[in-house]
Specification:
The complex is a heterodimer of chains A (667) and B (47). Chain A is mainly alpha-helical. Helix content of chain A is 64%, strand content 5%. The chains are: A mainly alpha (667), B mainly alpha (47). Chains A and B meet through helix 15, helix 19, helix 23, helix 24 and helix 30 of A and helix 1 of B.
Amino acid sequence: MMFALVGNQNCGKTTLFNQLTGSNQHVGNFPGVTVERKDGLIRGSKNITVVDLPGIYSLAPYTNEEIVTRDFLLNERPDVIINIVDATNIERNLYLSLQLVELNMPMVIALNMMDEVRANGNSIDIAKFQSEIGVPVIPISASKNEGVDELIQVAVATAEAKLRPKRQDFCSGAVHRAIHAVAHLVEDHADRIGVPSRFAATKLVEGDEPMLKLLQLSENEKNMIEHSVTEMETELGTDKEAALADMRYAFIDNLCSRTVIKTGESKAHLRSIKIDNILTNKYAALPIFLGIMLLIFWLTFGVIGTALSDLLSLAIDKLAFLVDHGLAVYGINPVIHSLVIDGVFVGVGSVLSFLPIIVVLFFFLSFLEDSGYMARVAFVMDKLLRKIGLSGRSFVPMLIGFGCSVPAIMATRTLASERDRKMTILLTPFMSCSAKLPIYALFTAAFFVEYQALVMISLYVLGMLIGVLSGLVMKKTLYHGNPVPFVMELPNYRLPSPKSVGLLLWDKARDFLVRAFTVIFIATLIIWFLQTFDTRINVVADSSQSMLAAVGKFIAPIFTPLGFGDWRAATAIITGLSAKEAVVSSLAVLTGTTITALPQALSSLFTPLAAVSFLVFTLLYTPCIAAIAVIRREMNSGFSALLLVFYQTAIAWITAFVVYRIALIFF
Amino acid sequence: MHLLDWLILAVLAVGVFFAVRYLLKSKNKGCAGCRNCPLSKTKPKRK
């Protein structure tokens, strides 16, 4: 048995999915968190699958989310549709419900967020509502797990009895006549492709091109449909899309006026309006955003994260010392001794020590996201992004890009326009991903202790600035035209749920640890091997005689104009291709020092200005291999991915060169 | 090389084996904290 969760964006589908399945999918107070279907088994059941579908506002095939959901419903025919309706915003949510009813499939409406409805002093006459709309209606609160068990029971009963909606016709007059006429006309074609004739007729009256193609109508039939639609438009004095929207909203208004009792406006909504007057103010919005980010960076790098990171470094060094001592006592072979201490402990340990910084930073960022503030930032950014030919919608993938470029590039699939999508893919890698944080943290601790937060935010802003400039160039050259209009629902502000923030932090920490013990571990061993042996596999007395030095010295001249022509710096840059954290582990292994002494050791490789140049280069140069692979897949072109790698590396080199040379003039 | 040397090498070899296996298994997933992201477990299907 298969349940399909369908509803508007941010109505609580993923929260309900997690309650139903006991899973921990990421839930965001942010529209568009789900962009592809997710499957899971209902808790305690082995044969009921539940599918979480992307949030949509209609079954029109305009956006990728709508296409995914519509194709799923029509082709895979779930046993029951669970339509989640945000009861605090019932009128707008029911617009989709009426279209789902037209599919004539077993369906249950889950009226979610009923706890908020009650808290606002409002109520809904469920029995009357259910009888009017013709499908079972269950009041629930997914976040509090209220009514979920009853929902499962009713959904199972509806699916087993194959209970279809009791009514599908919500219209009268001209719209009714047009749909009725078209439904009879296309009935045979609709039956042939397994689509309900009522649904097919409504879509044809709306002018749905994919449905027209799917039904393979004759020219005569098309003309007859056109005639019915024109007649309807003439009689109503409006176009077909407006006519159908008016018809649905007229029914919804009527239904709500008889079943929903509203004594007042939602408190959360009123509070959100007040907060938005400040946070999205025309002049104050951007400075406030920058101020909040500066505060977060200051707390992370200046107050909490760095102190915890230093403690962890000390602990790892202590452990390394004990192991070092133990290996010496047992007379372990010097090469193996070096492999364990100078390779594994220093390499993996140097990256591990930044775990607290990652966790603290993402604690604040997840707090902002869960509170609903990040959705406002997308709205604020719309004006700015329009100047480079994108809309605020592109900010969502870019925001994800601050965590990791891989899901960020995949998230561009939510963008309706191919032009916007490709531009966003090419610009997202300029947003500094979290894997680069250990590099920034290491260098700021070594060279700019007093100004850690400022250097951090400058790097992030520089990345965005270069992205903006690249966007302007693309707008003038590769991608002419205008972005699609940006419409996004702003969720109410809310206090972040400790569970949601906790889960996100746990995931971040776990992923960081997994990466440290997989990709960084392997990269460290390779670096240690290459810097310990020469080309004849003899142990070298000095790492400058190693095979790694030979390769590094070959590449190093490229970076000499940028101020860091040392072969070890060049080698670290190259290892960053596997994963950006590998830059830190490579530097740790190559300087042959302890983790706590690593910042000091860097001063023998870099001057403070060269460190700035190195940071700028690592901020902007080519993304890691995983991201390049995803870019190739999403752009459907290996050439585009290769071009982006060269483009970003060239931009990184030029920017680092300019920054370094200008800095040399002043300092 | 003593027995303990070989033992340490064997432990590291096992570590490398599991690390490589994990990386191969998760090569289509994201990185740096996106394991639980709704997008990271899906292979894109181009239309």
